Amino acid sequence: MNASNNYWRRRYQSFRYAFRGIAAFIRSEPHARIHALATIVVVVAGFYVHLPAVQWTLLLLVIGLVWVSEMINTVIEKIMDHLAPEWHERVGWIKDVAAGAVLVSAIIAVVAGALIFLPFLHR
Ligand SMILES: Nc1ncnc2c1ncn2[C@@H]1O[C@H](COP(=O)(O)OP(=O)(O)OP(=O)(O)O)[C@@H](O)[C@H]1O
């Protein structure tokens, strides 16, 4: 009984740390606030045009893709700044590729968003 209580307590703590991480990301990163604004605009537009469930699912997947890639990119930048604050070609490569991952996800999100919303503009 006690072991089971400890298990759920640890799971609860893990969720708290994860939510704290999301809040820290939004508080400290200007990019995160731009993503938050874009997410709100797109979700409101989705409700406005009454997106069907499949389009909602695809939209949420690309929104998630951008958030996750931006969060991982930010973590990589912070790790590199902490471990290797000096200028180094390899650090530049790592940061460039991590930023490239965000750009890939953003391009996919813009194209997917256009494909999802354009048919509703023609109605
Ligand atoms: N220590 C370093 N060594 C070599 N190049 C670096 C280093 N730090 C940054 N750079 C170069 O500068 C670019 C921007 O790095 P920086 O850490 O300033 O990211 P940022 O501009 O804060 O990115 P973001 O806009 O995603 O927050 C990197 O992609 C890399 O090309």
TrEMBL record:
Manner of cofactor binding, per the entry note: Mn(2+), Zn(2+), Cd(2+) and Co(2+) support activity to lesser extents.
GO cellular component, one term: plasma membrane
Binding site for substrate: 10, 70
Main location as per UniProt: membrane
Catalytic residues (UniProt): 70
Transmembrane intervals: 34-51, 57-76, 97-121
InterPro entries registered for this protein in UniProt: DAGK (IPR000829), DAGK_sf (IPR036945), UDPK (IPR033717)
One Pfam family from the record: DAGK_prokar
Compartments, as annotated in UniProt: Cell membrane
Coiled-coil zones: none
Keywords (A to Z) from UniProt: ATP-binding, Cell membrane, Kinase, Lipid biosynthesis, Lipid metabolism, Magnesium, Membrane, Metal-binding, Nucleotide-binding, Phospholipid biosynthesis, Phospholipid metabolism, Transferase, Transmembrane, Transmembrane helix
Residues that coordinate or bind a divalent metal cation: 29, 77
Membrane-topology descriptor: Multi-pass membrane protein
Protein name (database record): Undecaprenol kinase/diacylglycerol kinase (ATP)
Species of provenance: Chitinophaga costaii
